[in-house]
Write a structure and sequence with these properties.
The strands form seven sheets. Strands 1-2-6-3 form a four-stranded antiparallel beta sheet, covered by helices on one side. Helix 1 crosses helix 7 and helix 5 packs across helix 6. It has a single domain, classed as Chorismate synthase AroC (Chorismate synthase, AroC fold, 4-Layer Sandwich). The protein is of the alpha+beta class. The protein binds ligand EPS. The site of ligand EPS has 16 residues, from helix 7.
């Protein structure tokens, strides 16, 4: 079983994760993890914090000669902003007015530490740095299995970008170069972001990720908690600020006739005419790309005032501003890719539980051979 646990606060010393259950003998390159961390930090709509941080990972266990040993891999990311926070007195960081929409108030209901700062620190989306690093490690293994994951921003507030095939390299190059991770309308997206910032407001939006090369047969309908769509959407909902998840494009209207993806037999293979199901049917991957869309709400740290309460003074007041981003849809796109990488690798290892690379590759090949034979038998069916 592949699992990880992470720890760390937004302005504490750093973030760390221990990843357990990785098969041995896969090469892991630190620079590829750092590259993902950099992708997550860049993009339009970020606030002042990203000018301070230069996220890089330290790997302190579980590798030998850059290869997994099968032991737990421990990774660390330092918070540079810690230097600015470590000597702050508790009166300076004390918070008693919750921001509506943030975890400030619900965290206090639950943990009752008497200082909202404690909930703010751990609930912060800063944690997505370490979660992305975990996924970035996993996607190096996925890449050896022929699986790749790409993403883009699909909407910002009411503004839509065009739909496209993320595995069209020339289009994807344009998305990777765009500070909004969009294909068209980049100027309108930037103008919308600027106008929200000028008004002291924030914006939400949809991002889209697609996973190519995922083998048939991951997940199961045998029990509700083994369904691949449930597993993926649960993990994606676990990203800070995410409020909706869809497997397959949620923006299109269908009837049964137009939705369901016709099955055809072509070039010795079973394939689909379309992929409206987003690569999952009956909770099991069908070999088409896994398409995931998710919506992030507008960030709750806004300059505009929203009614709130001073819990210490016990009186009505207005929400308090905390430095933040205008929108995190661009980093969400990268976080989504990496969260998907972990979940897909986890399900591969649930399906083909093996302790080292060679045995894992052989098990996958065996399944593919059997499915290849199944494809062939259809001719004589
Ligand atoms: C966040 C608030 C901001 C973001 C942060 C998430 O941080 P700060 O409070 O230090 O300005 O920049 O995101 C990150 C630090 C990051 O690495 O993504 C929040 O409240 O969730």
């Amino acid at each position: 079983m592949l699992r990880f646990i992470d720890a760390g606060e937004s302005h504490g010393q750093g973030l760390c994760a221990v990843i357990e259950g990785l098969p041995a003998n896969f090469t892991i390159r630190k620079e590829l993890i750092d590259k993902e961390l950099k992708r997550r930090q860049t993009g339009y709509g970020r606030g002042e914090r990203m000018k301070l941080e230069k996220d890089q990972v330290e790997i302190i266990s579980g590798l030998s000669d850059n290869k997994t040993t099968g032991g737990p891999v421990t990774i660390l990311i330092q918070n540079r902003d810690y230097e600015n926070w470590k000597n702050r007195k508790s009166e300076e960081t004390f918070v008693s007015v919750p921001r509506p929409g943030h975890a400030d108030l619900t965290g206090e209901f639950k943990y009752g530490t008497g200082n909202l700062r404690n909930s703010i620190e751990r609930s912060s989306a800063r944690e997505t740095a370490i979660r992305s690093a975990v996924g970035a490690l996993c996607r190096q293994i996925l890449s050896e299995l022929g699986i790749s994951i790409r993403s883009k921003v699909q909407t910002l507030y009411g503004l839509n970008d065009t739909f496209c095939d993320l595995f069209d390299d020339s289009l994807y190059e344009m998305i990777e170069e765009s500070p909004m991770r969009v294909l068209k309308n980049e100027e309108s997206f930037i103008a919308l972001m600027d106008s929200a910032r000028d008004k002291g407001d924030t914006l939400g939006g949809w991002v889209y990720a697609s996973c190519e090369g995922v083998m048939r047969g991951l997940g199961s309908f045998m029990h509700y908690d083994r369904r691949m769509d449930g597993i993926i959407s649960g993990a994606v909902m676990g990203i800070q600020g995410v409020k909706q998840v869809s497997i397959g494009n949620p923006f299109l209207n269908f009837t049964g006739y137009t939705y369901h993806d016709g099955i055809i037999y072509e070039d010795g293979k079973l394939t689909r005419l379309t992929n409206h199901a987003g690569g999952i049917e009956g909770g099991i991957t069908n070999g088409e790309n896994i398409d995931v869309y998710c919506y992030m709400k507008p960030i709750p740290s806004i300059l505009l005032k929203i009614p709130s309460v001073d819990l210490k003074e016990k009186k009505n007041t207005e929400s308090r501003y905390e430095r933040s981003d205008v929108s995190a849809v661009v980093p969400l796109s990268i976080v989504l890719e990496n969260v998907l990488a972990f979940e897909i690798l986890k399900e591969i290892l649930n399906t083909f539980s093996r302790d080292n690379k060679e045995e894992l590759l052989a098990a996958i090949k065996y399944r593919e051979k059997r499915l290849g034979e199944l494809d062939e038998q259809i001719i004589n069916y």
